[in-house]
Specification:
By secondary structure, the protein is of the alpha+beta class. The chain has eight helices and 15 strands. The N terminus is likely disordered.
């Protein structure tokens, strides 16, 4: 189950004096992206699924399947399938269960009392999360929680459903969530994903490029998933387009080396910073030290975003 995340765009409120963030649901963003790639001339195979990838001469053959299977040939391959789902592709990991695994949960609520201008960070034992008002008068609650913490909470509550245990744990730890959702109603069902394992992975190998979480993943606490996915795609495409007049298949090692170096410069600081922020949020002792500091000096959040590279643009260069 893929955990959708909201993408942030910048708009101006009616007064025109302050910039505000706005959340765009993935059901809207993904539809827009598919429409644009079709307009750009790409062939969209949907709802086909890639089930195999193998070397063939100077390129690759990819087997896709729906009600039947079909082979596609390409000189290079870009993997953008995320990081947590098992599969037969060489870029998909073998997932084993660990107590330290982070499991992602998400739900939408209607009728919440979350202020429109507030997007709080939630810190609770064994996890962290956030809330934001989105389209349709809904409020989104997203969180990550350690597998062992979730199991302990389910056992203490006589093994309810995982999502129920997660919500109970958050509300028992965060008074603001209890207040915001006191009169709210769950909209549809909970979504879940995992295990989420942040870190840096192989970005290129032998004509096979990786973007998004497939290449490297920051802790969701910094809300960089969609941003890093789109920026890494823009970075790779810029490098490939710059060689469009050359034999790209024969230059993959050069392109891959430059892509890896630029990727590291743009995204590695964000991943390291996200690990620090996640540790502060999940540890009760660290939270007690870190949150008063953030409360007293809100500007540190902006400074931290700049130092981590969060404000860098992958497509700002040639």
């Amino acid at each position: 189950m893929k955990l959708p995340r909201e993408a942030k765009t910048e708009i101006k409120p009616p007064t025109g004096t302050v910039k505000w963030g706005r959340a765009l649901g993935r059901e809207h963003l993904d539809t827009l992206l598919v429409r644009e790639v079709k307009r750009a001339g790409a062939d969209v195979w949907q709802p086909w699924k890639a089930i195999g990838l193998r070397r063939s001469g100077a390129g690759y053959e990819c087997t896709i399947a729906a009600e039947q299977s079909h082979d596609l040939a390409a000189s290079i391959v870009i993997a953008a399938h995320g990081s947590w789902q098992n599969g037969a592709l060489p870029t998909q990991p073998v997932v084993t269960h660990r107590g330290s695994d982070l499991l992602g949960f998400k739900a939408h609520f209607t009728g919440s009392d979350l202020p429109l201008d507030l997007m709080p960070l939630l810190a609770f034992p064994g996890g962290y999360g956030g809330m934001v008002n989105i389209d349709g008068g809904r409020t989104s609650l997203s969180c990550c929680i350690r597998r062992d913490t979730l199991e302990q909470r389910r056992h203490a509550l006589n093994k309810p459903r995982a999502a129920e245990a997660v919500l109970h744990h958050i509300q028992s730890s965060c008074a603001g969530v209890r207040k915001a959702l006191a009169c709210a109603t769950l909209d549809q069902t909970w979504l879940a994903a995992g295990p989420i394992r942040p870190g840096i992975r192989v970005r290129h190998a032998d004509g096979l490029f990786c973007i998004g979480n497939c290449a490297g993943e920051a802790h969701p606490i910094v809300a960089e998933g969609i941003s890093m996915a789109m920026q890494s795609a823009a970075l790779l495409c810029r490098l490939l387009i710059a060689r469009r007049d050359d034999a790209v298949a024969g230059r993959t090692a050069e392109i891959g080396s430059r892509y890896t170096a630029e990727w590291d410069n743009l995204f590695a600081p964000r991943i390291r910073a996200s690990s620090l922020f996640a540790m502060l949020a999940m540890s009760p002792a660290a939270t007690g030290l870190g949150l008063p500091l953030m409360k007293g000096f809100p500007g540190l959040l902006s400074v931290g975003a700049q130092l981590s590279g969060k404000t860098n643009l992958a497509y700002a260069g040639t």
